[in-house]
Structures are given as C-alpha cells and as structure tokens.
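FIELD: query
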Amino acid sequence: MKRWLLITICLLIAFAGFYYSQAAHGQASAGWTTLFDGSSLDNWNPIGDANWKLTDGIVQADKGNGFLVSKASYGDFEVRAEFWVDGDANSGIFLRCSDPQKVTADNAYEVNIFDKRPDPTYGTGAIVNVSKPSVFLKAADHWNTYEITARGTHFTVILNGTRTVDVDDSKHARGPIALQAAVGTVKFRKVQIKPL
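FIELD: result
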C-alpha cells in the first residue's frame, strides 16, 4: 500500500512540474510574433544592395548598404532582437518607418548600432537625433540583445539588460521596422515583436 501511495505522489509531482513548465512557456511567448527565426525571410522585404544571406540560423550582410523591412506595420509594440556586429559595423534597428522604400533616420526612429560613430553622441544604444544613450556601451564582437518599447510617444531601449534610452518623441506614429546593414559585418539571429 505504501508503495502505491509513493508512486502516486511521485506521478502527481511530475505532472504538476510538467503543467507548470508548459504554462510558464505559454505565458512567456504570449502575444509575441517571431519575425525572424533563422530559417526564412518571409516577413521581410529587402531594399538597397546589402548582400543579406541566411546561414547557420542567422541572417547576415557584409557588403553593400540596405535594409530588411518588415512587411507589417506597427504603432505601439515591444521588439526583441539578437544581433552581432564587427568592430567597424554601422547598423541599427529602425522603428515606425514612414517610407518603407527609403528608410532613413529622418523618416523613422533609428536605434543605433555603431560603436565607432565619428560623433559618438548617438552611437550604440542611442535613438539617432532623439536621445543619446544614458550609458555608452559597445556591441562589437559578441552577441547582444536589444529590447525596445514604443508606446505612444514614449520609447525605452535596453541593451543587454542596461537601459540606455527613456524618452518621449512624437515625430513618427506608425510604420514597419527595418534592420540595417551599412558598413562591416552585421548578423541577426532572432527578432520578435509584440504589439501593445
């Protein structure tokens, strides 16, 4: 009798652990859409002449100048992106692009990835021409994560767990997001978005 009771308790504990892990996974992914998972560019339109290519679960470019522009448009959202750049790279994640055929820092918000920017005021971690970073961090030669929130006129940028921007600006209300390759080697391996 004691043996059956012990087996029953063990099974209940195992079932509860499985149920909790599944529920936690569901909550963690609730509302998030994967725009890039390493296997296809179905959610993106390339513009410019950057040599984007899929390899080993990443999308990368090391020549040319261009963007991957999301096919969908977003207003209020959170976006998470994992990226790697070399020391000379000039890249960024552009938000609320008003012209998806010609993306610039004037018609979108550019969350910069540019460690060697000649004027470092708007280097890595900044929103170009809107907010310099509160902390100057370097992104070269290791994998990084951006967590960016755009809610109405309020923007926050978190780079590798450190908040670099907390600002309000009202120039752009809605549009696609875009991944940039301008100089050097740029790689992205995971991009997710959650509309708010």
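FIELD: remark
The radius of gyration is 20 Å.
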